Amino acid sequence: MQFKMSEAVEVLAETPVVLNALLREKSAAWLTARKSVKDFNAIDVLGHLMHGERTDWIPRLRIILDEGEARPFEPFDRFGFQDLIAGKSIEELLDEFAELRRASLEALADLRVGEEQLKLTGMHPELGRVTVENLLANWAVHDLAHLAQIVRTMACEYGEAVGPWRAYTSILD
Hints:
By secondary structure, the chain is mainly α. The protein has helices spanning 5-23, 28-31, 42-55, 57-67, 82-85, 90-111, 132-156, and strands at 121-124, 128-131. It has a single domain (5-172), classed as Four Helix Bundle (Hemerythrin (Met), subunit A) (Up-down Bundle).
């Protein structure tokens, strides 16, 4: 499948809705489950996505559109979300993420990125040259990857409880 802005926006616009359905009113056991101490739990993923809305996707897009490769992106702190989530309920976090994403998609629409801008390049601090298309495609894939991460983590909480059905439940592998 080739990148199409409208298809990426379909995913990006629905991520808050999916997260809301998965996480709102869930018990702490579901929200804080993690596969290992190094892995994100659902609340961490939500915070990570919120941090990305503030510091990654639209800010980096603006850098490419305004300055190209002349100004490399700031490194993204994968754990820079901790202050964003501290002391907040899951409901507050979901509402805040939905608002951040709404604002990001509004900013994206206002930038009116066309076919010619998709090939513009910027400089990632680790990956080197990237295009606007790469950035926007990765934004959608990043959302999908973290949705899958949350679902896998939650499913693994009942990994033993499914008993012999584990053989038919590939998400637990």
